[in-house]
Amino acid sequence: MLPGSVWRIGRDKTVYLTFDDGPIPEVTPWVLDQLDAYGAKATFFMVGDNAARHPELVAEVLRRGHSVGNHTMHHTQGLHTDSDTYVADVMRAAETLPPTRLFRPPHGFMRPAQLRKIKKLGYQITMHDVVTRDYYSALSPGRILMNVKRYVRPGSIIVMHDSLKAWKNTGQALPHILEWLTAQGYRLVPLPQPPQ
């Protein structure tokens, strides 16, 4: 597991909805509109390549009151990459993103040496305790919603994706997820930036 990483925050009726792998013009603007419709705020763990191609979407995410985290420059998998290359990819992404101290490793895996080096850069490794699996085409949007209903609890960090791969499920499930969380009395807020 990733020692010292954040998986959940607090125990009040707050949840932290997060989106990985964007921003992309085919999905991210729609996600932002859905969040607006429910007065919800979220955190977008952006791939640097996508952010560099779509700086207007990065600006729009911030303008609408959401926060941003680093998800590497090329969606680099830690288990298949040496530590120096991995850290360089994270640092390159940081050059394209707004200042953030939030980092989430793609696919949720890093080697211990990578973890130590990323923490030395001042990042908080931010994971999740609710995995919707919206990227998995064998699951239905209804099952994605059920994953949230079954596993969410106060302080949960929920992971979804603003990507083409997840669009089939995200596009149908997200409005129902937002409606249900709101009806349960949860506040949806961005992840806080860790203190320096």
* Rg over C-alpha atoms, rounded to the nearest angstrom: 16 Å
CATH architecture assignment name: Alpha-Beta Barrel
> In CATH terms, what is the fold-level topology?
TIM Barrel
The CATH C-level class name: Alpha Beta
Structural class: alpha/beta
Give an overview of the whole structure.
Helices cover 39% and strands 15% of the residues. α4 packs parallel to α5 (112-120) and α6 packs parallel to α7 (167-183). It contains seven helices and eight strands; from the N terminus they run βαβααβαβαββαβαβ. It starts with 13 loop residues before the first strand and ends in an 8-residue tail after the last strand. The radius of gyration is 16 Å and the shape is globular. It has 196 residues and is an alpha/beta fold. The strands form two sheets. Strands 1, 2, 3, 6, 7 and 8 form a six-stranded parallel β-sheet that branches. A two-stranded parallel sheet has the order 4-5. The chain has one domain: Glycoside hydrolase/deacetylase (TIM Barrel, Alpha-Beta Barrel). α5 (112-120) links the parallel β4 and β5 (124-125). The longest helix has 17 residues, at 167-183. It has helices at residues 28-37, 48-53, 55-63, 83-96, 112-120, 141-151, 167-183; strands spanning 14-20, 42-46, 67-70, 102-103, 124-125, 130-131, 157-161, 187-188.
What is this structure, in a nutshell?
The chain is an alpha/beta fold and 196 residues long. The protein is built from seven helices and eight strands, in the order βαβααβαβαββαβαβ. The protein has one domain: Glycoside hydrolase/deacetylase (TIM Barrel), CATH 3.20.20.
